[in-house]
Design a protein that fits this description.
The protein is an alpha/beta fold. It has 16 helices and 11 strands. The strands form 2 sheets. The protein has a 6-stranded mixed beta sheet, sandwiched between helices. The N terminus and C terminus are likely disordered.
């Protein structure tokens, strides 16, 4: 059990593994949706511990990874303006655009700042009334409430030198896009615990019923993930397809109503393009019309931008569960965290970064 040395309850993990081996009779392919789950799986070797007939593939659950290249380039164009203070979470600063990243833009003199909460931008905007403050609002449903709060507070307080560059994406439509793909291999999902803490899991029930796939809302500890695998495999072996909630200590069916209300008051659902995946209908948020004055794309008139991904990068196929990071010819050589070609090597939740961090570019993985 060397992969679980850091986990204090190896006995529970071993018991779950024993139960999985007793239940599993046929080969199954599961996808964990959240990048945090991917990180935990690779860190603790959960996939290596499972029977070889159970394969875990990695989904598009890293918001940094799926932020489209066009939005990255628009961020660079806005941040490069002398009248702008561009604010972002730190994990976006090294995401490669067509030519550079935000760290490079900052090294050229742009005022690019790392913030730890969107609401920090309000203080910055008050302190610099002669400058435009822009926040890079990315993420899944998990971060949408805080970003909605920033816009709502800015309007309430009459702060008009603040705007947001929005790239919010939604998980359920992405799962449908994966399941609709003619090359889909996924037979069940470990659902996103953090997203469902906000949104609940009602909307996953229709997906499970329509596509006849188990969806188990799962936490992030190794025991959470193993129990999620056990629940999903049990459903598959029994011919069932339901939504089950492994992460009941955090997630409820209805989620956080207050947070949902705040989000819906500021944002509305729209089509979004996902990096490596393409446009998905009804898969993102944009600002409602009454908040359009806070839309950075409108304010700075950054229109269509031509972009091109590095041809060797297979991050799109990794995000869709078609390939794994070590299938890429550039993985660990031309593409590393220090010199990333794609977003999945940059983000701490990216599958490629996780594989690199935990040494999977040095040795082949084994399962037993």
């Amino acid at each position: 059990m060397k992969y679980l040395d850091e986990y204090r309850d190896e006995a529970l993990a071993q018991a779950l593994l024993d139960r999985i081996r007793r239940v599993q009779k046929r080969p199954w392919m599961l996808m964990e949706v959240c990048g945090g789950q991917t990180h935990s799986i690779v860190r603790y070797g959960v996939d290596d511990l499972l029977p070889k007939e159970i394969e875990l593939v990695h989904g598009p659950g890293c918001p940094v990874c799926v932020t489209p290249l066009e939005l990255i380039d628009k961020a660079h164009a806005i941040a490069s303006r002398s009248d702008v203070i561009f604010c972002s979470f730190g994990d976006m600063l090294r995401v490669p655009g067509s030519e550079s990243d935000l760290l490079t833009v900052r090294s050229r003199g742009a005022d690019v700042r790392v913030v730890y909460s969107p609401l920090e931008c309000l203080k910055i905007a008050r302190s610099h009334p002669d400058r435009q403050v822009v926040f890079f609002a990315i993420g899944f449903e998990t971060t949408a409430p805080a970003n909605a709060m920033l816009v709502s507070r800015a309007r309430q307080e009459g702060i008009d030198n603040i705007s947001v560059l929005v790239s919010h994406v939604l998980v359920p439509p992405a799962l449908e896009a994966i399941l609709d793909s003619p090359v889909n291999r996924v037979q069940g999902f470990l659902g996103p615990g953090h997203v469902c803490a906000i949104m609940g899991y009602r909307e996953y029930e229709a997906i499970s019923a329509r596509y006849k796939v188990p969806i188990v809302i799962t936490g992030f500890e190794p025991s959470d993930l193993l129990e999620g695998v056990l629940m999903a495999v049990t459903q598959l072996e029994e011919g069932r397809a339901e939504v089950e909630n492994q992460y009941a200590r955090v997630v409820t069916r209805d989620g956080n109503g207050a947070a949902q209300g705040l989000v819906s008051s500021v944002f509305e659902v729209c089509e979004r393009k996902w990096r490596g995946v393409g446009p998905i209908p009804q898969s993102g948020y944009r600002l409602r019309e009454e908040f359009e004055n806070f839309d950075a794309e409108r304010r700075f008139e950054v229109g269509a931008i031509d972009t091109q991904e590095p041809p060797v990068c297979i991050s799109g196929e990794v995000l869709r569960g078609i390939k794994k990071p070590h299938d890429c010819p550039a993985f660990g050589t031309d593409c590393t965290p220090a010199h990333p070609l794609g977003a999945t090597m940059v983000s701490s939740e990216g599958a490629c970064a996780a594989y690199y961090l935990y040494g999977r570019h040095h040795k082949a993985t084994t399962k037993g």
